[in-house]
Amino acid sequence: MIKELLDNKASKEEIIEFLSNYHAYDISKMIEELSEEDRDYILDLLNQEVLAEVISYLNPEDRHEVFSNLTLDEQVALVEELEPDDAADIINQLEEEDKQELIKNLDEDEEVLDLIKYDEDEAGSFMTNQFVIANINDDVKMATKKLIQMADEVDTIQTIFVVDDEGHYKGQIPLKKLIKTKYPKTVLDILEVEPTFYVFDHVDNLVRHLKHYGGYDIGIVDNNHKLIGMIAQDDILDIYLDEAQEDYEKLAALPDTSTDKNAFLTALHRLPWLLILLAVSIPSAFITSNFTGILTAFVILAFFQPLILDAGGDVASQTLAVTLIEMTKKDAKVISNGLKEIATGAISGFVMGVIAFAVTLIFSFILQFDHGILIGLSVGLSLWLTVITGPFLGFMIPFIISKMKFDPAVASGPFITNLIDISSNLIYFGIATLILGGLAAWLTSILNFQ
């Protein structure tokens, strides 16, 4: 829509009036589709307050580019308009030299300075230090008065946090509950104590907490349990979505899922992972090359090889997904769940193996291959063992990785699939060599002797 206005040479006044009808988020999505020149032109038309809101909604790459193109004075003015947590995100994206230069020009009491010292995966990097505080000794009238006084200065008034005289967290009160409560009740009478997080807690803890306890504004405390910040519900949802996307990227062996890069940069970014996976798959090809003798003697084995490999990879990926989900639960029973997955694989594999035996027998009869029963036995038994091995690896690999204090999501689908390919080839050709290369040859020699 905004592009049409620019194409039709609309005046500045017309564009400003048009944008005034839209939320900052909608404006950010409109300008993301524009060229750099048109984007900068539109941003120059916005007043400082709206500009700050729009920039906070831009994707990280565009936000960094827009902010970096501003003069130092413009950056300082914009930081003063931005919410402290949004400003911290932008500042931490800058090059170290530019970051330090900007920090030197900010007022010493600028609230964002307290937030930029935290790592991006710590709770402190997501919190805001602008929130409503009431003292535990206040009555509801005093708490309501404080709420009204602070309303213009804070991010949200949905939750009133309660502290003692030393600033220690004592609880919190939902806005609705405060409004409904009548004097002479006190804050102590109506406060609700909710779990809090330390400022250096990993963001994964917040995500797991959200899943089990639902959404509410979370208090952030220091090592002395003094309340120093809060994370609003909408920010917690953003954290949850970011972590889910990150886990999906790991599971799919993707460096990232950004669609903002061009095809060349995307390919360049993914190439190292693809080369690693290629290197992991080389042993599988090497194993196959060492069984050319049995493949030459029984060509039908090549026909069923994809069946064995695909079945193993499928059940391993299923078990991997179930295991990762189980690990996120508060009362996770990872080992018992893993054993159940392996047992499920054994049952499913047996049924699949019997079916594969019958199908192989029919194919051998139609194509007039010798030793049809032994070929069917090789395929059926291999499929059964492979479908048992798949869940075993799909469970054990993320379990071991988690015990090593690494993120189990790095046990990506493609990585697991390559390991299954290696083990499946070993099982398939090993059993085929044992049955067809040994037992079939022995039976043939007996028949020829007779």
TrEMBL record:
Principal subcellular localisation of the protein: membrane
Subcellular location: Cell membrane; Membrane
GO molecular function: magnesium ion transmembrane transporter activity; metal ion binding
InterPro entries in the cross-refs: CBS_dom (IPR000644), CBS_dom_sf (IPR046342), Mg_transptr_MgtE_intracell_dom (IPR006668), MgtE_N_sf (IPR038076), MgtE_transporter (IPR006669), SLC41_membr_dom (IPR006667), SLC41_membr_dom_sf (IPR036739)
Gene Ontology cellular-component terms listed: plasma membrane
Membrane topology annotation: Multi-pass membrane protein
Domain Magnesium transporter MgtE intracellular per the UniProt entry, residue ranges: 22-123
Nucleotidyltransferase is among the record's keywords: no
TM helices/strands, residue ranges: 271-304, 346-367, 374-401, 426-449
Keyword Metal-binding found: yes
Assembly, per entry: Homodimer.
PANTHER family per UniProt: MAGNESIUM TRANSPORTER MGTE
Protein family (similarity comment): Belongs to the SLC41A transporter family.
Protein name, UniProt field: Magnesium transporter MgtE
